[in-house]
């Protein structure tokens, strides 16, 4: 705000979800009581979550014993870590990662074992993953489609993860909030849908990502009752419950607004292709991705002597008027890459176009001079 920059940093969309959902949320405040609903969530939403799971991933769910509604997926993650992990447990996480994973897992007393995804396509180093599993490994944390990279884990990678979980009796926590934000011919496959994984996976979803209502903070999870029971106990003392009027609107959305969330992927693909083309023309190296709404770019050509991704992102905000996020901030392991930034492109076309014009005005001279101050570094 201080520098009036175009914000392509924060991961929230400019467009909002279906108008009918807003109307239902408002009407529900008058049609139903406004006292505590069940700590598990209103039955309408839990039933809708079960139907959504079966329809989109072929995973049957008992709505009465295998669903939980949370205050966004982030609270769901916190409840999972606090409910399932004990001091001394180890959690394997793929580096880079959404920043709340590390904080909440450590709060539970667990140790993080990072496995670094390989650049430029963020592929899984399967041998390193297998070597990371030890006697204290309790959980593998999986986020697909992936934040910050936009990567979609392949079937081969998922099968390797499933095999390790089964052989070593490990739980999998699956953050799938971007499950419908997929494009480019790719397909999202839930780890929980693979043979032998339904009984050892907890799967999370989010109305913020599925319906572009990030302010509502309504999430959900599905999983076997033996895993959900301790999670529910943690959820009870974290937040207890979730606003019932919003839950009823999300239930409608899952059942009746599939046209909206199934259109997200194609819509985002158009925006990504535009930004990808313009960034490449300026000299950015654009890393591949087929999901979520993030684009990771190599800014090596624009780094000044001694400058890393954090300094570049700050300079681009202050001087260039475009805000990104440095990728190094998403890594927990030592020596993260310092030449990458993340653009968020789920924005109005006019905002993307304004950002591109500012980038051209600020960075094109550097490109023309072959990198300016960074020559000879």
Automatic annotation (TrEMBL):
Name assigned to this protein: Aminotransferase class I/classII large domain-containing protein
Domain of life: Eukaryota
Listed InterPro entries: Aminotransferase_I/II_large (IPR004839), Kynurenine-oxoglutarate_AT (IPR051326), PyrdxlP-dep_Trfase (IPR015424), PyrdxlP-dep_Trfase_major (IPR015421), PyrdxlP-dep_Trfase_small (IPR015422)
CDD domains: AAT_like
Keywords assigned: Aminotransferase, Pyridoxal phosphate, Transferase
Cellular component aspect of the GO annotation: cytoplasm
PANTHER family: FI04487P
Keyword Transferase: yes
Tagged with keyword Repeat: no
All copies of domain Aminotransferase class I/classII large, residue ranges: 6-359
Family affiliation: Belongs to the class-I pyridoxal-phosphate-dependent aminotransferase family.
Cofactor(s) needed by this chain: pyridoxal 5'-phosphate
GO MF annotation list: kynurenine-oxoglutarate transaminase activity; pyridoxal phosphate binding
Species of origin: Volvox africanus
